## 1
Amino acid sequence: MNISSGYHWVTLLTFGFVIALTMIVTYFAAQRVRSASDFYTAGGGVSGWQNGWAKAGDYLSAASFLGIAGLISLYGYDGFMYSVGWLVAYVAVLLLIAEPCRNIGRYTLSDILCYRNDPRKTRIVGALSTLTVSTFYLTAQMVGGGVLVKTLIGIPYEISVLCVGVLMLSYVLFGGMVATTWVQIIKAFLLVSASLLIVMLVWAPYGFSLPAFLADVVADPKVQARVTTVLGDAAGSLSAAELGQRFLEPGLYFKAPVDQISLGMALVFGTAGLPHILMRFFTVRTAQQARRSVVWAMVIIGGFYVLTLFLGFGAALHVGPANIAAVDAGGNMAGPLLAQYIGGGAESFFGNFMLAFVSAVAFATIVAVVAGLVLAAASAMAHDLYVGVVRAGRETTPQSQVKAARIATVVVGAMSIAIGIAAKGQNVAVLVGLAFAVAASANFPCVLLTLHWRRCNTGGIVAGMLVGTIAAVGLTLVSPNLSYPLAIRAAAHKVLDTEAAKRAAAHSPQELLALDKAVGKARADIARWGSATTSFMGLERPLIELKNPGIISIPLGFLAVFIGSLLFRDKRAEGMWNEVYARQNTGLLVSKGSHR
Amino acid sequence: MATDIAVDWDAIIRDPRFQDLHRRKSRFLWGLMALSVGYYFLLPIGAAWFQPLFRERVWGVINVGLLFALSEFAVAWAIAWYYSRRAGREFDQLAAQIVADHAGPASPGGGHSA
């Protein structure tokens, strides 16, 4: 399906322009990549504000750019509430992680972990957790990207994934961190300017008054109809005005508070453990620059989420939640469709130009985020596992290190394309939450405690990494996120059983249409699940009711680091505490890296 | 990687100025962190268990919940601004003084490099 069929050439031209821009940057960047330090960290030559923009570029993935605007357009207040955690997450990064990491780190997460610990063991667990987190995140991005490109420009899913993969590979392979950083900066800048323009156009008719704008949103029949759909039977007694107002109140999306707090914990602590975010701190020279870059990133990311509030509510008002959900059930097309409307609609040139521009930015977003992730995964493979473990103790030349990094990039890139194509049609939204949960439960406790707790040692790091990762993944595997055939069949039969009664009671053609759709889905579900009775894990029903494991797995991760460290006491790790602590607070010998 | 300057890390840790820096910084950082996390979780808690309050309209159709969510942004930015101001004016200076005194030329056998 293609939402801009009449003006296909505008779309292609705009995409071509954005891709050409990033390619030019990659060409110049490629000439600056000579050593491993150039490849992994742009030689440490990135300034604070540049890194701040690049960090925002890394973080504002399609999930947050398109996904949150979509959530707001479909569920109102809860969508906006969801976006808050993504910004607050950076407070932990700023206060606890950024500066110490810059002061004692070098290229990767494992470089921090192995500073005063057994390099072999910590590098292996650090690299494994980096690969785990990056693969989950990468799969979600590739599948989301494939679907998005398919919807936006109408090429088959497999080709879309291949395009994203090949383009990303060309940035990382030739330009390393230099190109990746500049692609992130360009993308973040385009993303913010496009959003700002749309928001100005949406908001200006109201004289930039927030109450006036929102009053129009809640008075809109499309929005009120949406609230009726979401609330179901509970909507019965509410007046039209009350239904509209309900859109600005909590509870349309998040039903279980504990789930939401658990997700909030994974976001707030997980960001500080995301390998591709940590890696960005090594591209600046000093702790002061690292601090400045986080503050820049917080201004850009926070400002963007405030804009998203207008994008989401604006899309609900002008395009209508039902129309948005019809193009993409998750609401991902809310932003692009709003851009098309604001530009003059589906029949106009400017409307399609705006749609194409926002789509091209969305495409650049996916490619850039994937590039950052692949770089992080490749560095874990080449720098930690190959140079640090396989060839430990032997001299490696700068050339051979860059070569190892490039080979690892191709391996990870090819893997991500293969996984993206293999996971076609799967619901991968859960994987982003899982990536954050693993980062929060394994990486965050380990990094935080090796930086701030004297007794933390190899035993603690290995235990924390393993327990945190296994707890987060294990709890997700037995959670309601998986498909449970018994429950699906029960729900489908309920739809079919009540079909006749509903058909008799339906008042409008829309209701009948929705009913037909629900019946079709129920039949497809019954056919798809056949006689299966258990989930992928062999369970008839979820063992826990939590959708995000954070609230259990994060404390478990911390506990494991404490117990592991106290069980396997290590005189050397404690003896080096003074060095670690003095260095992270003073920045002495910064960029000299770890001793081994 | 071998380093060409040796630093006596133990001497830095013993330095009263470093201990002073450590005390001030720790109290400040963990305090701000607790404040930030605490304020953040008030949002889902309020949305779940204080819905009547969150639904209270205060400015046209805008309710307490919406203002509270917006205030989360303001608080996160304020914390970032306050931290970088204090770090830039105070912690960086203290650290620079300590560095200036301890990062002298290498003395044989000194330092703690493993």
## 2
Amino acid sequence: MTISERAKQIVTGAAPGAVGAPLDRVDGRLKVTGTARYSAEMPVANVAHAVIVGSTVATGRIASIDASAAERAAGVIRVITHVNAPKLTAGALTLLQDDRVRYNGQPIAVVVAGTLEQAMDAASLIAVTYIEGAPAAIDMAARKMDAYKPAGGQPDSIRGDIEAGIAAADVKVDARYSTPFVNHNAMEPHATLAVWEGDELTVYDSTQHVYGTRNGVANALGIPPEKVRVVSHFVGGGFGSKGRMWSHVPLAAMAARAVSRPVKLVLMRRQMFGPVGGRPETSQHIVLGARRDGTLTVVRHESVSHTSRFDEFVEMCARVTRTLYAVPNLETMHRIVKLDVGTPTYQRAPGEAPGTFALETAMDELAVSLSMDPIALRLKNYAEKDPESGRAFSSKALRECYRVGAERFGWSKRSTRPRSMRDGNALVGYGMASAAYPTRRTNASASVRLMADASGAARALVQSATHELGTGAYTVMTQIAADALGLAPEQVRFELGDTRMPPSPVSGGSMTSTSTGSAVHLTCLAAKQKLIELAVADRSSPLFGTRPENITAANGRLSRTTGTRAEESYAALLARQPDGAVTVRADIRPAASEYVTHAFGAVFVEARVDVELGEIRVPRIVAMYGGGRILNAKTARSQLAGGIIWGLGMALEEKTLVDHRTGRYLNADLAEYHVPVNADIGMLDISFIEEADPHVNPIGVKGIGEIGIIGVTAAIGNAVYHATGVRVRDLPITLDKVLGTARA
Amino acid sequence: MRSFELTVATSVADATHAVAADPQSRFIAGGTTLVDLMKLNVETPHRLVDINRLANAEPSLAQIVALPNGGLRIGALARNSDIAWSDVVKAKYPVLAEAVLAGASGQIRNMATTGGNLLQRTRCYYFRDTAMPCNKRMPGSGCSAMEGHNRIHAVLGTSKQCIATHPSDMAVAMLALDAVVHVRGPKGERAIPLADFHLLPGQHPERETMLAQGELITSVDLGPLAFAARSHYRKVRDRASYAFALASAAVVLDVNGGRVRDVRIALGGVGTKPWRSREAERALIGKPATAAAFRAAAEVALAGAVPRSENAFKIELAKRTMVRALSTVAAMEG
């Protein structure tokens, strides 16, 4: 069935229930006891192990691959190279289809053996010679003249009159900012377990999109998607790196077919750099113009990012700039540069995370130039409606985020002058920044089966092929379903991550709660309505003949609200149905909305910088968000804390080092690739401005997966500037950049 | 990672003979460096000789015991955690406890041994990647770091062949404590001052220590330094924990009447080996214990520093780190 939406009615009619409560994760016990099964742990018999061998050059051709020693090594079943690989549809993947090398670390062979150790041993015995290609283009800064306008998307935008805006400005900021190439480094490496039964393939995969992976694998192998089942019950972090399918997935399926055995292929940590994309490097140029009173007259935001030689990915840094401030004259531009590296990809808040670093740092610089409080400057340019489209926001609590956040942080204690707050050896600085992320929603489907269990209590099995990335999807979907069905969360079992279930979109873009959550909600409401309709039409029911609108459903019971009191339990009603069950499946398509939908937030940071040694520490972050309805106070806080901590890492630590001559990824391990450790994190004060948004979607949620990372980098940089008087415009802000020793 | 054979040694003699007889074999204790490098194919031993059980027959190999001369003997199999939480180390040689705690992570320290820590290999990216030229890993192939990414590389003790940094924190503190390394091999026992134990890269960066194939570290003896209770390790790094030093300083300071009577200074994160600066020590003895004198000594310590494209900041950082460490001890009560 397809359900038409009556969003306002549904949201305003929501009764207090499981949604919003800080319910413990329903999968928490499985995870902490190690019994949650991740893709590589699925119990499959007779598994062979595959290891990918990567190229050691970035350009050129393979002259020869000598696999003879590997083939002779103990336990080896097959070595697959471009010489003997079955023909696949590679698309933009590198699947052993030719002798060309497109980036360093590109898969050039797959070794399949009885054990992982045997496969690793044999992989190290493969000898490759190359015909050198053109010198690798690795350094984006040196290739900026090659920047071009990407074909797809909306790379450019313009509103108003830029020249007039510049002419009207009393004060200008004109600065360049850069953010480095970074990799996701999810705790669980990408892992695929491919199992063929006849011409049917099951892929257990660590993915953020089971349906996308199904189509990708089917397309690569040239088989109908119906022949492929993709299963992903738990994902140990994705952050965008598991949103699109990478080469190891079809390679595992190819290998499994080649050896007629199930094949497990788990990427090594260093293979998560290159064969799996990261967030591209960006170089951004911002021009801000304002009148003396802080009113923005013009904003220009130009971003250049890198892509691979063989595929196009655009980091949309300036998109957020179109929405954040009410400036009449605005121009944004995105360009990309092809480099001889693996294709970059979405990483948490793609575009917004590096984009707000530039924009919100520039706003801080403007505030300094104007001698204006940074919050006052932002309020002066507050966008009451979307400045790009002129349409209203469905809700926007940013003003309250500034106000309450500042209060909680103690912003009023901030001295105006940089380098004026001191505590022993520490220079102390306060900084802030805004955060914004669009609320998106797309098609999603769900099913619910209501039945009575042995004890005579109603139970619901709810399914949708979404994903548990550690976000709490199992938990919040259980809460949504429980409330919509009129059951307790304990009576609901939610299942996900299987293409045998109704489809859900990629778990990215903060869309899972908005899309799948709405689908679960509406499907469960429909199931509850069906119970009511069955009851009133059933002569055996005490509710027979009652008008459906005079029946409420709660706590597993249907009750008449008018006239003589009468009620019936779901379980009793269900017992009289065929199979003792009621099943509803619905495909939900969001209706077009007249509103622009965004989540907003404000981040406040205290930074401490050692006056001589330059060590930067962040003891305190206060963050306020208007994120619509919060489904689970506990998992929501965890999501945002994870984003904020990542923002701290992006600000101070993260950078993928690539050798400019060879394209080798140099720090591809968790010792040298720095992400925050516990000792880096001080107090995180995360809270929400309650938003009852009847327009955004049927459950009033905005999605909070990405917004946590946004604004943190700029807020930290602004705090470091306030502490030291040193403005660092290229991330990460490492201590050498604030030591003042550039010429030492 | 290559397949390998694992044997378990039950006596030092068995272990040293086994490894001496087979150049393709290695001792393994905590394995926190070796296994890492084996996964990268940087180390490809055919055989590992497990020395973890040697302490069953010879308990002193894993113990920390006082020496008659007032010094301290730390068994080679004592874990880093054993050192960090040893009461006698904390009381008599705080610089060593601080240095050990500043290194690695709790899990790694529970495994890593004293001997293994002295032998840990550089974190140079190019050394750890077999696809790149590296004179240390493959003599004569060239140094990729020289013109590559070298922000973490050494500024002291470098050569045209190699600029790789020695990564140990523990060894830096031990160097400031006049440590002597005791080794046993097929040809018997010998004692090597820690200052001589690690080699400068020179023309042969592949040779990192005085150890011969088959020689096993049995203990590290710390000097009796009566004033070592007034000591401190200061490490500067890119994050608050679990990161190698950009610069570190281990100092032991004896101040009498406002003047420096004796001092030990060793630096980490900046040298191709743990870096003792006797020149700086000499420059400081007899001088007032002031920031200005410390800074002058730091200038002496870093006088020979040679920067590359990305690591010039380390020279100033090392000086400031050394000054901070000395100032911290000078300001201590008592």
